[in-house]
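Case study 2.
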Amino acid sequence: MSLASVVAEDSGFRAYAFEWALVDVETSGLVARRDRVLSVAVVTMGPDGERTGEFSTLLDPGCDPGPVQVHGLTAERLRGAPEFGQVAGRIAAMLQDRVLVAHHAQFDYDFLAHEFARAATPLPVSRRLCTLALNRRVDPPTEDLRLGTLAAHYGVPQHKAHDALDDTRVLAGVLRASLREAARLGLPLPLVDCPPRQDPRFLPRQSKAPCSFRNPGRLSPGGPLAQGMKVAVTGETDTPRTELVARSAAAGLNMMTSVSRHTSVLVTNDASTGSAKARRAAAEGVPVIDERTFLRLLGEVRAGTPHEQRSDERPDERPAERQSEREVEGEAEREVASVPGARVAEGGASTAQASASKAAGPVPVPVDRPLTGRRVLVLGGTHPTAAAGRARVVELGGAAAINLSAGVTDVVLLADGAADRRMARIAALEIPTYPADWLDAPAVAPLPRWVIGRRGPLVLPRGGVIDLPDQQLSAVWHLTASWAQRTTCEVDLVAFLVDEDEQVSCDEDFLFYGAPESPDGSVRLLADGPAEQTLAVRLGALPSAVRKVVVAAAVDGTPTFGDVGALQLTAGCGSSAPPLAQSALDAATTERTLLLAELYRRGPRWRFRAVGQGYDHGLDVLARGYGVDIEE
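Prediction:
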C-alpha cells in the first residue's frame, strides 16, 4: 500500500503529512564545529510520499577527508568539487518550508548548521524528524535499528551503503514505511523544533585543560595553596585575567568560572563587591583573599594528589578522533553481538533474565516469572497505582512499556484505563487486555511469533546494576530517557561528569540543553524528539579525572514528575543497536528533579546503575551538590 493510499483511506493520517526534505551527509569526522561535510544529498518528498526532487554533490572540504575506509572519499576524488558555499543556495531552496529528515537527524542537522554558518547563509530549517527516534517509538521486530536493517525489514532496496544519494533514497523508503506504522499505532511524530543557527562565528572553542589533581579542600587562614584547589576570581584585576588564569592553571590549580561550596578560595580586590560570585562565597563560607596575596601564594604551591590513573588507559589505546560515527557505532554493535550476555552485578536483574538475553532462540518461561519476554502497557489509575502495576510487571519478569508501540504484547487496565484514547488502536491491533487483578496471577496468551527468539534487553529494577561487557575504548554508549509526550511541561536531561569526590572538575563538566557537549567531546547530549533525549558517552575518551557520569532529569516550571509519569531508561552500545538494559523509573511524584542513572568505574570494569531517586528541589540545588552554580 502506498503512502498516498494511506492518506486517502485514513483521514487521521493527515497529521503525518508534511513536505519533507530527506538529507544525508558524509563527513571528515564526528565534531560538527571542527570537521567538514564531504558530500551531501537531498531528496524532497510531498505529503503523499511521492518524490519531488533530488540533488547530490561531492564537496571540497579544504581539509583531510578523514576515514576514507568508511566513505571512500579520497582527496583525489574531492579535488575540483565545489565548496559548500557554492551550493548552499540550492540546498537552502530544497530545505525551505520542509521538515528535515535524517536517520541521525541531530548529527546531519548540526553539520549543515555549521556549514551554512561558514557560508554566511541562513539555514532555513525550523523542524526536523529523526527516523531512528521514530522507529524507537514504533519498535519494529528487528534485531537493531540501523538504516540497512530497517530497509531490509520494510522491503526497501539498498545498493551502496555510505553513498549519500543512495542512503537518502533508502531513507525515503524507510520514512514512508515508518509513517505508515506510526499512523497504524496512532503515534505522535517526534518532531524537534530547531532554533535559528545563522551565527557565522561557529568556531571551535578552546577547551579548558582538565586539572590533574584532586581538590584538597579550602585554603586555611595563612596556609599555602595546593595543587587541585578550586579557585575563582571576581572583579577587576591588576594582572590581565587571561594571564592570571594561565599562570594559576600551570601551577596545578583548578580555575573555575563560578563559586560553590567546594570552592577553595575566591580572589578579589574589592571585598565589598556585590558580584554573584562574592555573594555565593559569603553564603557558603568560602575564604576570600586579594590578588596580591594570591600572587604571593602562587609562588609556592604545594604538591597535590593526582587523580587515580585508570589501569586500562594507555595513550596508544586512545580512539582515533576522526573515526566516523557509523564506523564507531558498527564496531560497538559487532562487539556487543559477540558477547553472549552481560554479567549482572549486585541488585541487578535475575539470572533468568540474563539467560534469556544469552539465548539465540526461545527459552522456557519460569513459572514464577510468567511475563518473561513480554512488554506490558499499564493504562489508567493514579500515578502511585500505575507505578505499582509497572513494578509488578518487572517483578513477574516482563518489561513495563510507557507508550503504545508494535512491541507491546499485553495491556493492563486500571481505573479509567478503558477510557484511554489509545484503546481504539489497541482494539484494532487485537492486543490482549486484562483487568488490574490479572497481575496477581497472570494467565498469558502465547507470545506472538515475532517475539519468540527476539533477544530483549535486561530489565533492571530501580537500583539495579549491571556490568557493561568489555568493549573497545572507541565504543559509544547511549543512555536514552523517554516519556509520554506532554503539552503542560518540558523535561530536560542533564549530566554531571564527576571525580572521586563526586564533584565536577570544571563548570563545563555539567551538560544541559545550553551546553550539550563536554569540552573534549567525549560526552554529548542529543535531542531526538519532545519526549526523548539521549546522552552519548565515549567511555575510553573520558579524562582520567572523570570517575562517574551522573544522568538526571528536571521538570521545567511548577509541574512535578507525578505529572510526567513514568520514564523509560535504556542503555546500549551504539545508537542503532538493541539496548543492553532498560528500566522503568516512576517512583517520583512531588519531585522536580530525578537522578536517572550512573555510569561508573568499579575496579577494571564500567557499570551501569538505574537509580530513580527523586528530589523536591530544583535543578539549581542538585547542581550545587555536584559543585556547579547554574545561577552564574
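The chain has four domains: 3-193, 230-298, 370-445, 458-625.
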